[in-house]
Amino acid sequence: MRHSAMPARRPVRTASLAACILLLAACADSQPSDAAPADLVLRGGIVATVDADNTMAEALAIDGGRIVAVGGNEEVDGYIGDDTEVIELDGRFAAPGFIEGHGHYMSLGNSKTILDLNGAANWAAIVEMVAEAVAAAEPGQWIRGRGWHQEKWDRPPDPAVEGNPTHSSLSAVSPDNPVLLGHASGHAAFANAAALAAGGYDRDSEPPPGGELVRDGNGDLTGLLRETAQRPVSAAFARSRSGRTTDEIDAQFRREVALAAEEALSKGVTSFHDAGASFATIDRLRQLEDEGALPVRLYVMVRGQSNDEMDARLADYYMPSDGDDYLTVRSIKRQIDGALGSHGAWLLEPYEDMPSSTGLVLETVEDITGTAHVAIKHGYQVNTHAIGDRANREVLDIYQSVFDSAGAGDDLRWRIEHAQHVHPDDVARFAELGVIASMQGVHATSDAPWIPARLGDDRAEKRTYLWRSFLDAGVLINNGTDVPVEDIDPLACFRASVTRQTADGSIFYPEQNMTRVDALRSYTINNAIAAFEEAYKGSLEVGKLGDVVVIDRDILTVPDAELADARVEVTIVGGEVRYAR
Q1: Which regions of 423-523 does DSSP assign to beta strands (E)?
Q2: Which of 25, 247, 496, 503 sits between 20 and 30 A of 55, alpha carbons compared?
Q3: Average pLDDT for residues 327-335, to the nearest whole number?
Q4: Do residues 352 and 383 touch, judged by C-beta distance below 8 A?
Q5: Are 383 and 438 in contact (CB under 8 A)?
Q6: Hey, what long-range contacts does 132-136 have (CB within 8 A, 24 or more apart)?
Q7: Rounded distance, CA 372 to CA 519, Å?
Q8: H or E, element range at 455
């Protein structure tokens, strides 16, 4: 169990974004002539080191879990011994292991155990999936699923309220089974009649603060639960599982951890920023780390605890990275608003397609300000979910006021998670305050077809997914997928970041594109910097961890049209091959 004193503040090491990529010169005296054989050598490829100069090499050697050589083939061949495992790259592309910059690790694992609704063509298909699940379930057993998105269906539901279905058809196929189906964003859910009743909802119910119960023209609940309105039904589901034994709970937890790791490793992800876990979940993860049972390195944000609880307990959970760690805890996650797709993002002006609303405030400015002061006291980073332009402005105001009043240092690296819709006037404030924009490239191309409907063309163009504006202002962007909101695939996110091409082939405001180098850095070294871990990971340099991904083609140079076909072939964590295609 690792607990260490808080380190002195260090300045953020700003990554060079040099356009020219240099070939690493092989120096005859750069390696000792009597170099000990390494455990693993990768040779004969295109190796993107992602160091400060974006140096390119041909080979690297790993020993004891760390990189001991990077350079030309002849240079690294000196590390090959009788017992060295050699991977012939044969011209393939190697890079630092991808770091998922914002995802939900346990939710990813859990999503593998419930109905996957991402590919459902329409509401009728979802009802059919639920009917099949009900046929295999016992009466009273909950049916759960996740991934539906009304904007992606091939036809609207009928009947519909605000573009969403009503629960009548769903309830008809599941009269004796509560059904709860999460929206792809996680910011809404759909419940059938049995689930609404289990959550204590009826025609006269009012939602909790920060939530909405959608009703039809007669005032009846449709089953759509926005934001915090999901909580009573989720609590009812939790109560239904209260009879499980300790062994059953532990087995389910371990299964979800393993399923999440399997998916991550298959996509080249070696580290994962987990955007929210309770102290209880962290305790379980810490046990797995002690057992050596965490296959992916986790950077976990504390979530779901009151300010008083955090003030009393954060010191016991402070686990900054000290090298070859699989669990790091030194940050807090808060959430000021909801999602744009569910009309929950907090806007400066009303929604174009819902003029009565400017979104929802899920956690108050006052409470988040209190968290920020607790974080300063205990040396924790604060990472606040903010999607709407009003939400981003409010969070910047909170950060600035706390920085000023607390006399905070210069290397806090506080983040705004998502930063999807930002007023241009606030872009420079990110840079001035040293706030990191923790964005998800794939969200832009996934959301592009319906963003103008929510915001109007002018706001969509000038305020959404401002990657180039942020980069030109000197703001650090770290990239991710928000999995399971999107597939964890970094290559799909990389492609979205550099092309902004949607499924129908259109380009979503290409003036905000990242360059290939921008995008690779955003998924490697920038994510390491955003977690205070750049000394150990994020680039392929001597002394750093041997976390590597091998891809079947050079994603820095192939034509845009080939990026969609790129595949991860090998994933290496600490010098150990954890995935091979």
Answers
A1: 436-438, 477-478
A2: 496
A3: 98
A4: no
A5: yes
A6: 134/173, 134/174, 134/176, 134/177
A7: 30
A8: helix 451-455
Instruction: Using CB atoms within 10 Å of the CB of residue 553, give its burial: 0 to 12 exposed, 13 to 18 middle, 19+ buried.
Output: middle
Q: Would the pLDDT of 12 be above 60? A: no
- CB count, 10 Å around CB of 248? 11
- The answer to whether the CB of 117 falls within 8 A of the CB of 539 is no
- Write down the pTM of the prediction: 0.88
- Which single residue is written with the structure tokens 């968290």? 371
Q: Which residues contact 1 (CB under 8 A, 6 or more apart)?
A: 286, 290
Tell me the pairing of strands 269-277 and 327-335: unpaired
- Give the full edge-to-edge strand order of the sheet including 297-302: 98-103, 269-277, 297-302, 327-335, 381-386, 415-418, 436-438, 477-478
Q: Which residues lie closer than 8 Å to 123 by C-beta, 6 or more apart?
A: 148, 150, 153, 157, 165, 169
Alpha-carbon 416 to chain mean position: 12
Rounded to whole angstroms, the Cα distance separating 214 from 342 reads 11
159 prior amide bond cis, ω within 30: yes
Distance CA 251, CA 476 (A): 39
Q: Per the structure block, which two tokens stand in for 38?
A: 């390494």
Cα 451 → chain centroid: 20
Length of the chain in terms of residues written: 581
- The per-residue b/e assignment along 375-400, b for 16 or more CB within 10 angstroms, e otherwise, is bbebbbbbbbbbbbbbbbbbbbebbe
Q: Has residue 121 got a pLDDT over 50?
A: yes
Four-residue CA torsion sign, 161, 167, 237, 197: positive
Q: What percent of the chain has pLDDT over 90?
A: 90
Residues 227/338, Cβ–Cβ less than 8 Å: yes
Cβ proximity of 173 and 151 under 8 Å: no
Q: Two tokens at 210?
A: 């920060």
- CA distance linking residue 419 with residue 288, whole number of Å: 33
Rounded to an integer, the average pLDDT of 254-279 is 98
Asked if residues 17 and 62 have their Cβ atoms less than 8 Å apart, the reply is no
